[in-house]
Structure formats: C-alpha cells, structure tokens
C-alpha cells in the first residue's frame, strides 16, 4: 500500500512584511527649528543693516559747516545782521549787503543767527580748522537764536565765510545762517521758536 503524499511545505523563515506595515518615520524640522532659523536670520539681517548704515555714514561724512564764501565787504556797505531773514538758502545767500534781506513774514530760506569775527592772522586758517571752528560757533549761535538743539531741530545751519581774497584784505567776518527752507511762507521768523 502506498502512503499518501504530504503537501509540500514552504521554506521556513520570517514571513514577508505585510503591505500595511508602518514605514519608518522621517525626521522633520519642528516649530522650534523654524522659529530658531527665523530669529537667526533676523539677527544677521540687523547686523548687516547696522554695518551698512555705519559704512554709509563714513562714506557721506558729516555735512560741511561752511556753505559758501563771500567777497570782501565794501567799506561803508551795510552787510546783513543777526535777525535778518534772507530770500536764498545759506549756500546762495548774499550777505555782504542788504540785497537778499526780506521781511520775515514773507517766504524766506535763511535767517542770520549771528555775525562773528573769525580769529586769525594774515593767512586764512586751514580748511579743516575753519570748518571745525565754524561748526562749533554756528551750533552755539543756532541754539541761542532758535532756542533748540541743532541735532534735534527741524532746521539746519551753515556758515558763509570770507573768501581767501577777502581774508587777505582784512575781512574776517563770518555769518552763521539758519536754513529755514522748510518754513511755510508767512510764518515769521524761527527766532526763539524752539523748533
């Protein structure tokens, strides 16, 4: 008698993974990483901005205190005086006579804060020394005339100094002017305004 054939058995071993088995989780960036990257980017951006502003300030430099020069004041001529309002801004203003003087209630672009005699001998001071002297002198004159700190005021100031020829002739007169180009016409003088 023949023995019945047994069914073939499969090779032993681990069964294949089911198709529904979970896949290994991928690591993701969490919110902490996103916020950290944002903060680091903002910090770097702020540093770059500050460096750019400092470089720009050095490239531009501080504005010159001297806006222009004037020829020698003719003997007997009436030059402008403190409190006068001038039609043109400091770089164009005529200071050696009354040509540019207007009523302060009219539109005007400058006002005379002070008239000073620059110390010095026969030769005109060097450009840097004169710039520094006029910057200091006109900042003080501005504060006394407008009644505010020139660094925080809406107005600026500049000086008109004697030309080299005027200096040689003995004219050492300099004019500290307030730049009032932003003042609406008819608003009067900025003297004592504190603006």
Read across the widest sheet, the strand sequence of neighbours is 1-5-6-4-2-3
Number of strand segments: 6
Largest sheet: 6 strands, mixed
Rg, rounded, reads 39 Å
Note the total helix count: 3
Outline, from the CA principal axes? elongated
| SSE-based structural type | alpha+beta
The percent range for strand residues is 15-25%
Helical content class = 25-40%
**SSE sequence, one letter per element:** HEEEEHEHE
Low-confidence runs of at least 5 consecutive residues:
58-62
Count up the domains. Answer: 2
Describe the structure.
The chain is α+β, with helices and mostly antiparallel strands. It has 2 domains: 29-61; 66-179, no CATH class. It is built from 3 helices and 6 strands; from the N terminus they run αββββαβαβ. It has a 6-stranded mixed beta sheet. The protein is elongated. The model is unreliable at 58-62 (pLDDT under 50).
In short:
The protein is α+β, with helices and mostly antiparallel strands.
Please outline the helices and strands.
Blueprint: H1 31-60, E1 66-70, E2 85-86, E3 101-102, E4 110-117, H2 127-146, E5 156-162, H3 164-168, E6 173-179
Parallel strand pairs: 1-5
Antiparallel strand pairs: 2-3, 2-4, 4-6, 5-6
């Amino acid at each position: 008698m023949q023995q019945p054939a047994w069914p073939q058995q499969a090779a032993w071993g681990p069964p294949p993974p089911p198709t529904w088995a979970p896949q290994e989780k991928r690591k993701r960036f969490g919110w902490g990483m996103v916020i950290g990257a944002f903060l680091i980017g903002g910090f770097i951006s702020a540093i770059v901005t500050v460096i750019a502003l400092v470089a720009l300030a050095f490239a531009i430099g501080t504005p010159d205190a001297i806006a222009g020069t004037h020829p020698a004041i003719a003997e007997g001529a009436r030059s402008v005086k403190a409190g006068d309002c001038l039609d043109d801004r400091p770089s164009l203003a005529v200071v050696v006579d009354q040509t540019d003087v207007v009523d302060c209630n009219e539109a005007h672009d400058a006002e005379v804060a002070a008239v000073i005699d620059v110390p010095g001998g026969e030769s005109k001071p060097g450009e840097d020394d004169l710039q520094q002297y006029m910057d200091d002198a006109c900042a003080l004159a501005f504060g006394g005339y407008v009644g505010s700190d020139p660094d925080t005021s809406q107005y600026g100031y500049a000086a008109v100094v004697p030309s080299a020829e005027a200096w040689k002739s003995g004219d050492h007169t300099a004019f500290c002017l307030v730049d009032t180009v932003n003042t609406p016409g008819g608003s009067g003088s900025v003297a004592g305004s504190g603006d």
